[in-house]
Amino acid sequence: MYFSDNYNFIKYPIGNETIPGLRNAQIGAIHAIASYFTIEKKNPGIVVMPTGSGKTAVLMMSPYILRSKKVLVVTPSRMVREQIFEDFSNLNTLIKAEVVPKKMAKPVVIELQHLYDSSYEQTCLEADVIVATPQGANSILENKTVEFDLVLIDEAHHSPARTWQQILISTIGARQILFTATPFRMDRKEIKGNLIFKYSLALAYQDEIFGEITYIPIDKDLENKDVLIARKAEEIFLADKAQGYKHCIMVRTDTKDKAKQLEKLYSSETSLRLRRIDSSMSNAIAKQFIRKLKKGEIDGIICVDMLGEGFDFPNLKIAAIHVAHRSLANTLQFIGRFARTNAINVGAAKFIAMNDEDLIIENKKLYASDAIWQDIIVDISESKIRREAENKEYIEEYQQTSDKKATLSNFSLYGVRPNCHAKIYRVKDFNINNDLPKSCNLEIEPYVNKKENTIVAVAKGLSTPKWLDSDLIKNEEHLLYIVHYQKETKLLFIYSQIKSEAMYESIVESFTSRYEKIPRYDMNRVLAGLNDFDIFNSGMLNRYNESGESYKISAGSDVSQTIDRSTGRMYSPGHVFCKANLKDSEITIGYSSGSKMWSSAYLSLQEYIKWCDNNGRKIVNSKLKVQTGTNYDFLPMPQKLQKYEDNIFLVDFDGKTYSSDPLIELKDKKQAIRFITDLSMNINSIQSDIVNISVKYGEIEEVISCDLKGKCSTNQDIFYVWQGRDKISLCEYFNENPIIMRTTDDSVIQGSEVLRGDSNAIVYDDSNIVGIDWKEKYGTNIEIEVNDSTYHPIGKSIQKSLQEILQKNFNYKYIIYDHSKGEIADYIAVEIKDNNMIVSLFHVKSKKGEQFNSSMNDLYEVVGQAVKSTIWLKSKQTLLQKMKSRRSSKHCKFLKGEFRKFSKEIKSPNLIFKGIIVIVQPAISKSIEMPLKYQQVLASANYYIGQSGKVSKLVIYGSV
């Protein structure tokens, strides 16, 4: 029992520049270890001490204060293994610090120089300490002959690696201490254990454990970079030597081939005596060069990463960096080799490298010409370690709420790093004790943090391989769900890797009784407080043409340059994704009208929740104003709908409905299944807080009410909409795909948003009204729209007269009749002229009012049909496909010409496609005074149709 027997010899002298003893860092660490293992029996303890602060002494003292029986020390490399073996065998470091007396018995220490076999058995059984690399340590643990009660891991940031993890698993009953200067990894894997002592880099500078460090930038010259760095290294070495400093040089690069090239370059371009050390050399040769270095027989060494962790030679003071590390951990380890002060005749450490402002470590331009390393290194190290400690404490706040614990191998919330994405709802209440829906298919019991109102769950998903055109094989995947409620804002954030509306809504409904999506005017505030915008992806909603180019997406470098004031009159923001600066840090941020926000960043769980919270506070802060300082500001942002005005003249489907036309059926299933766009929608009545809309399929009618939040309701539920295999009510569909309403003053209302337009742009002009003497010239009864055997068997209808008019016009090559439910138009007339194919759509309605220009009902329905029909003139292909669909149901009858010839002619690339919309309503009279509201509706219809794209004009066939 060597360590127990010698426990009483241990002292804790406090040293300074003149008196030997322990430093503050060492005293703090050793007492923290003693305190921790007084209580802790299970979890490893993590000790964080900067390179050069005396970590080896603490490691050697630990077995004494813990009165250990047998100790395993694991080092990252053979060279460090040899150093620790030698030091532990002689206790040189502890004797020099007067922690133990010179004459005290030394421990029996074994250096495991190769994998464990029978030749080691007796010596290992008799040893107090065994020092090994990970491979050697695993070989002795697999044999199970030797048992350890204390495991000391040097450079513990390696411990998440599989080989190191196996050591910790195999010694799970032993006390384990992990020593590191950088408790974080480039791959972000968790260093498992409790942080029991953290000695900051700032304290190391304050206690003069770390000396000054200076960065010497070389002006950019990529062709002569290596030569310039080499010559500057020689200049500084000679200058330091002239001042009496015993400094040595390390030349750092990234490959053995590059090291060989630099060896030749330094030999030809400088007088420096350097030797190359790399992994291809034998250990004996490497040790020989190190001895020469320490004796001053050579000036320095050229290496890749051979003399990194654990190598102790404080006279290394000049670093010539030809290829820099790109991770913070490696950079700090490297700098730590040079910043030590525990040697005689040494000055400030100097780092020579190219002025590379593009090389960013932890968002800091470390190798920029104005970089002040003394401040930067402390700042990024301290903040990184602080975040690591906070993250560990934060993860501990999550608990599984039942006995059904995690079954995923080695799963830890520490490793959860979601890409920044969230669907956001404003909710009335939140019950964290509720369960996620069964559709999530959870694999393990969720982790719950009641303090943060957050739930994290891992689920099992099955997907068909992309290369397989069937569902016979399924790939198993793990899916992540995060539900976070921000109490102060009453916002609920949902992270789901299944990004369907159905999944999001099933989750939100599991935790709250009432919820609503966030409108664009609120979502836009996630851009507030940022500057230096570079917008590289944006979507814009067309105010006038949901049926044409309803959504325009631009991507590239600063797409805002493509936006001008005229674009702002046509479009409003749909989504945006941009790069910007926040407090001198570059971030990405995006949002969409679908109540979503995202970034390209991947964050820890704690950082992700903070990201949600920070943006949530901006979303609800109505005082915030967004100015990007780019042309994106030309796009008008919708406002909150406060009340409905009585100038709404048109209701229409959302643009996505036209691009993906779902099927509908009647509740009683007495009618054949049709498409939702076969329905007609008209305004029934307008109140300040409710718009009542009539939805018809022939004579079958359902009246729905739309409130100021865009929510639709009804007491009828006649029509149902198919979504895949599911069937939902018409109101449910409209709540997911809000109805669009247009006003006579160029405003567009959708959901809870209103987008104001330019009312001055809508001007009434009667020049597009064609006055026809229906009764005298054609014998028309203008109160009859169409002759039919039931309602109007006698009397000449408007349609019959229109057909006569069209057939007398010899310019029309094709005339098509399509009157019925879901029609394109009552009549379609096609003219071929001067390489143009001009398609005219005629919409017919009868006069119902007692007087001309008197009944708004005479206008609303036909104007609505006219505006909506612009969808079929979006392109040649759109019109042709619709006509084919109509003909398959025995409609779209050709009165003049043949479909086969028309189909061939419309495909001709030589014909330019143009459209004309014609409203046929004899109730409109050009010669009788027209009320203002009549004028507004006609002017608005003309304006909207004119803005739609392919339609060149609106013509009105009225009465004289």
Describe the structure.
This protein is an alpha/beta fold and 960 residues long. Helix content is 29%, strand content 27%. The chain contains 26 helices and 45 strands. Strands 14, 15, 16, 17, 18, 19, 20, 21, 22, 23, 24 and 25 form a twelve-stranded antiparallel β-sheet that branches. A seven-stranded parallel β-sheet has the order 3-4-2-5-6-1-7, with helices on both faces. Strands 39-45-44-42-41-40-43 form a seven-stranded mixed β-sheet, with helices on both faces. The longest helix has 23 residues.
Summarize the structure.
The chain has 960 residues and is of the alpha/beta class. Helices cover 29% and strands 27% of the residues. It has six domains: 198 residues, P-loop containing nucleotide triphosphate hydrolases (Rossmann fold), CATH 3.40.50; 164 residues, Rossmann fold (3-Layer(aba) Sandwich); 104 residues, no CATH class; 116 residues, no CATH class; 116 residues, no CATH class; 194 residues, Restriction Endonuclease, CATH 3.40.91.
